[in-house]
Structures are given as C-alpha cells and as structure tokens.
Design a protein that fits this description.
2 domains; six-stranded parallel β-sheet; single chain; Arc Repressor Mutant, subunit A; globular; Rossmann fold; alpha/beta
C-alpha cells in the first residue's frame, strides 16, 4: 500500500448532495477528488479517462444509471472501485449490484456519516454496506436444497463455515483474522477454498452466497 492519496470522482445529479460529499471528503488528507459529474454519461467518460481509485455513483441519474455505469465498467480492464449511493432499501437491486462487482452500497441518508469509512474499505479491496441496509437486505428466503438433498454448506469445514458467517456479517478479512486469531493471508486462503467448494466464481460471489444463506450458517 502506497502513501498516495485515494483518487475519487463524485457523480450525482443533485448539486447539494455533491457539495455535501465534497465537504466531507476534502477534510481527509488521504483523499483527492479528481472530478464531479451530474449525469451518468459524463460520469462514465470521466471514469474511463481519469481512472480514479474510487467513484461514488448515485444509482438514479439521467442518461445512465449507476447500475448501467457499473455494468460498463465491469466489462473493461479498469481497477476503479464503485460505491453506489441509494435512497432505496431494495434487495433485488443490491444483489444485482453485487453481481456487477460493485464494492460499496451506501444509503444516501447515511452517506455523510459513512462515506469516509466506505471509501477506505473499498480501497482496501473489501466490501462495504450501510448497516441500516442489512436488516432489509438479509431477509431472503433460504436456498432450496439441491435435488440430491445435500447442502453445499456441508462441504465446508467448521472453520470455513465460521469465516463464511463473518463474511455474511460484513466483516473485512482483517476483522475476521483478528476475531479468529489468524493471519489475514490465512483468511484469504480460506476464502479461495470456500469459493472452490461452493462452485462460485467472480467478484463478490462468496459474499452473495453468504448473504443468501446466512440463516443456515
């Protein structure tokens, strides 16, 4: 990890929201705002040309939505981490965002309080979600057992199930390591093994599985 500031773009069609986020972000010496955008097309152009470390995207913007931008970015070799800002507690949209590789999902009402932590978290290749969203987003039906009657969870060791539980609880790799008194690298290795055993691939795939199966862990 270098000492270079985390570069950012803020995209929201409401000037007051952008100004509020800028005011909070500019207080942090470890952040540097590259640009702002008031619509989705401008935001996408800025992301592609300036390649920020992190972009804050309103889900509902004119011309292109935050999800449409996320889909465009996911199809390109860009390392920019996306944090979506939303007013809606919608689990369907949330899971779609995870599928697209979005790294952060923050309620606008909480953004002033949470944006700094969210940016630092996703810049460290971790996932961030507003705590207020968890009670709504995690109320999902249990996954129906496979035709053979065997749950994929049965393939996991006790340690792997415990790590999967902490993942569902939105703990970072470092937080899990601290709780379990193991190294961060060991947690990362366990996550790789969990992915292989569950047969899931792609960014945030283990997180999505953990959220959908939290009641079974």
């Amino acid at each position: 990890m270098t000492n270079d500031p985390i570069t950012l773009i803020i995209a929201d069609d409401h000037p007051i929201v952008r100004a509020g986020l800028r005011q909070i972000i500019e207080k942090e010496s470890s952040f540097h705002i590259l640009d702002e955008a008031e619509d989705g097309e401008t935001a996408l152009q800025q992301i592609l040309s300036r390649k920020p470390d992190v972009v804050l995207l309103d889900i509902h913007m004119p011309k292109l939505t935050g999800l449409q931008i996320a889909e465009q970015v996911s199809n390109r070799p860009i390392e920019t981490k996306i944090i979506l800002l939303t007013m809606v507690k919608d689990d369907k949209t949330f899971l779609k965002a995870i599928d697209l590789g979005v790294c952060g999902y923050v309620l606008k009402d909480s953004a002033v309080r949470e944006v700094v932590k969210a940016i630092h978290t996703v810049a460290e290749d971790e996932f961030y979600i507003s705590p207020e969203l968890t009670s709504v987003l995690l109320k999902r039906k249990k996954i129906i057992a496979q035709a053979a009657g065997k749950s994929p969870l049965q393939q996991l060791t006790e340690t792997e199930r415990r790590i999967l539980y902490f993942i569902a609880d939105l703990k970072t790799n470092q937080e899990i390591a601290d709780i379990m008194f193991i190294s961060k690298r060991t947690v990362e290795n366990h996550r790789v093994n969990i992915s292989k055993k569950l047969g899931v691939q792609g960014t945030n795939s283990v997180l999505k599985f953990a959220l959908e199966n939290k009641e079974m862990l």
